[in-house]
Write a structure and sequence with these properties.
single chain; alpha+beta; Membrane-bound Lytic Murein Transglycosylase D, Chain A; Immunoglobulin-like; 4-stranded mixed β-sheet; 4-stranded antiparallel β-sheet; LysM domain-containing protein
Length: 265
């Protein structure tokens, strides 16, 4: 499953743009942009682009989390809806003090990554693999040339929304990643006393990595960055499982804001 391990940008074409100018801006190549967006027959004449079309731009940067380039007329609410997230989370992880004030060409980190379609893939298979729905994939890829519900092209880059809660966004590992003992865990959280809990379970509900906690860089109401590792306390009993990241209620210790990231072993 070819998760793209490099940075991708979602960019809306402006009047006067060319593939060459876009490639130079994002340290990409014309050929890579054409491949990622299937900019050749039967979708379109090779390299033909139109204003307001949305492209996924492959770049050489890290990390793999996608950035959205603000287009004239964009608002944070509409961008949030495209990626099945909240205005609060987008504003929090991008250090935006006023959610009503964003700027043209501003880069916004969004909960999504790029995945390259393989021969035999369907949107349903891809959605199941990454723990999202077909409708969520469609929303993230709307207005893109070459994207259709019933016809998808090998080599095309799909923007895949990352499962989140209102208060937790896991950036590492990405959904579908193969993990092992000591796997790095990173993300953003808005949680009580900045305490972020995590564990790993396999598909037989066996706890592979018991519950542990780490501390985010800031506590609620801010979104703080957190980083930890996932030591295995026992071997998985299946080839697939989930990384659980959550908080505990101060009132009754119940699990809150659970994010379940599908992984393989």
């Amino acid at each position: 499953m070819p998760i793209i391990q490099q940075k991708s940008y979602m960019y809306t074409i402006k009047r006067g743009d060319t593939l060459y100018s876009i490639a130079r801006r994002f340290d990409s190549t014309v050929e890579a942009i054409e491949q990622a967006n299937h900019l050749y027959p039967p979708v379109t004449d090779r390299g033909l682009i139109f204003p307001e079309d949305v492209l996924v731009i492959p770049a050489a940067d890290q990390p793999s989390i996608m950035s959205y380039v603000v287009y004239p007329g964009d608002g944070l609410r509409g961008i949030a809806a495209s990626f099945q997230t909240s205005v609060d989370l987008l504003a929090g992880i991008n250090n935006i003090a006023n959610p009503n004030l964003i700027y043209i060409d501003q880069l916004l980190l969004v909960p999504a990554f790029a995945n390259e379609i393989e021969t035999g893939d369907t949107l349903y298979k891809i959605a199941t693999r990454f723990g999202v729905t077909v409708a969520e994939i469609e929303a993230a890829n709307s207005d893109r040339p070459g994207f259709q519900r019933d016809v998808i092209w090998p080599g095309y880059y799909l923007a895949i929304p990352i499962p989140i809660s209102d208060n937790i966004f896991v950036t590492t590992p990405l959904p579908g990643t193969q993990i092992q003992n000591g796997q790095q865990l990173e993300g953003f959280a808005r949680v009580f006393e900045a305490s972020v809990q995590h564990q790993v379970r396999d598909s037989n509900n066996v706890v592979v990595s018991r519950e542990r906690f780490t501390t985010a860089s800031e506590g609620a109401p801010a979104y703080g960055f957190f980083s930890s590792t996932l030591p295995f306390d026992r071997q998985p009993t299946s080839s697939t499982g989930e990384v659980w990241v959550f908080s505990r209620s101060a009132k009754d210790n119940s699990i809150q804001d659970l994010v379940r990231t599908p992984v393989t072993f």
